[in-house]
Design goal:
mainly alpha; 2 helices; single chain
């Protein structure tokens, strides 16, 4: 059996077709091999399209992750600010109550 050397690149496919034409003498087998080459090329193109789509999706997800991290950081700062504000208010109330008892 003739195998495809060097992956699905054009050179490997051309070598396969040439070897099939020189070695088998049957037009039917050459036709089948050429059809297989055409199918493999189409499969390769589809895989390349899928790869591009996946890369775009990964980039979109990374951008979303960055935005969510920024939102989380802003929310954490706001929580910290509110806790500080609550602590300050509580401290003032305690001091005021203490001062009123002293009077």
């Amino acid at each position: 059996m003739i195998t495809l050397e060097g992956g699905m690149g054009g050179g490997g496919c051309d070598q396969l077709a040439a070897a099939a034409a020189a070695g088998c003498g049957e037009g039917g087998q050459v036709d089948r091999l050429q059809e297989e080459i055409a199918r493999l090329r189409l499969d390769k193109l589809e895989l390349l399209r899928q790869n591009v789509s996946a890369r775009h999706e990964v980039r979109r997800l990374r951008e979303r992750e960055t935005q969510l991290q920024a939102d989380l950081h802003a929310a954490s700062r706001e929580i910290h600010r509110l806790r500080e504000q609550q602590h300050s208010s509580s401290t003032r109330i305690i001091k005021r109550n203490h001062n009123q008892r002293m009077v």
